[in-house]
Structures are given as structure tokens and as C-alpha cells.
Design brief:
The chain is α+β, with helices and mostly antiparallel strands and about 130 residues long. It has a domain of about 80 residues: Alpha-Beta Plaits, CATH 3.30.70. It contains 2 helices and 6 strands, in the order E-H-E-E-E-H-E-E. The strands form 2 sheets. It has a 3-stranded antiparallel sheet, with no helix packed on it. The protein has a 3-stranded antiparallel sheet with strand order 2-3-4. Strand 5 and strand 6 form a beta hairpin. The longest helix is centred in the middle third of the chain and has 12 residues.
Length: about 130
């Protein structure tokens, strides 16, 4: 990978915000209820996703009662365009070091709320282990 790719910054639009999660929670409702500009988001590869092995889910973390700790809710996915590239970089040992909500627009009458995030990737290749002799 090119030296310029280390510490790359990406501005992404969250896809699939109008769908429901497998547990039945509405992503649009979660976005309306919990999303705030500047809050952290978490990107997690889903290599076992039956629709796309390159899928990268986007989650928010919501604090619950103090003795239960935070809970993660999925709000959508990285677009297919970026997911394929990110999946390869994650597999090579890269990671997202920071990601947060840049802006959001989620009126009640909008089926697919708009959420924009910014993510910083650390795509430094994982050093190869020396061969055993």
C-alpha cells in the first residue's frame, strides 16, 4: 500500500438506515432516538454476511443502566463501494482508529434517515513474522 494511505480519512454516508436489524429494532428509530453529531461509531467487518462477505456494519454505543454497561446498536452499513476496499485492509491487519457522526438528518416522515460519518483508517501493513529455520 502507498505511504499516503496510512492515516487516511474517509467521509462516508451510512447505507441501509431504513431497514430493521435482525432483532426487529428499527434503525431509523434508533437513529432518531440516539444519534448525536460528534458521537463515536464503530465499524465491524461481517465476513459471514450471507449477502456480501465484504460487508462492514456500523454501530453506535448506547449507555444503559450503570450496572449493565453500554449496548451496541447497528444503524447501517458502509457502502458497497468502500466496503470491498476496507475489508481487504482489515484482513491485512488495518483498523479504523477513530470514527464519529459528522452530521445527521432524521425527520419523522423520512424512511431512510441520512447519517454521515468520518472514519480514520490506519492501514499500515502488519509486519510479516520471520520464517522459522
Amino acid at each position: 500500500m502507498e505511504e499516503a494511505e496510512y492515516g487516511s480519512v474517509y467521509r462516508l454516508t451510512v447505507k441501509g438506515t431504513g431497514f430493521s436489524n435482525p432483532d426487529g429494532t428499527s434503525r431509523a428509530d434508533l437513529i432518531r432516538r440516539f444519534i448525536r453529531d460528534g458521537m463515536d461509531v464503530y465499524l465491524e467487518p461481517e465476513p459471514e454476511n450471507p449477502h456480501d462477505p465484504n460487508a462492514i456494519a456500523i454501530f453506535i454505543e448506547v449507555k444503559r443502566w450503570f450496572f449493565f454497561g453500554p449496548y451496541r446498536y447497528q444503524i447501517g452499513y458502509v457502502s458497497e463501494r468502500w466496503a470491498k476496499s476496507f475489508a481487504k485492509r482489515f484482513a491485512a491487519g488495518g483498523k479504523i482508529v477513530e470514527a464519529y457522526v459528522r452530521s445527521h438528518h432524521a425527520p419523522e416522515d423520512q424512511t431512510f434517515p441520512r447519517v454521515s460519518i468520518e472514519a480514520v483508517g490506519d492501514w499500515k501493513p502488519t509486519p510479516a513474522k520471520p520464517a522459522k529455520r
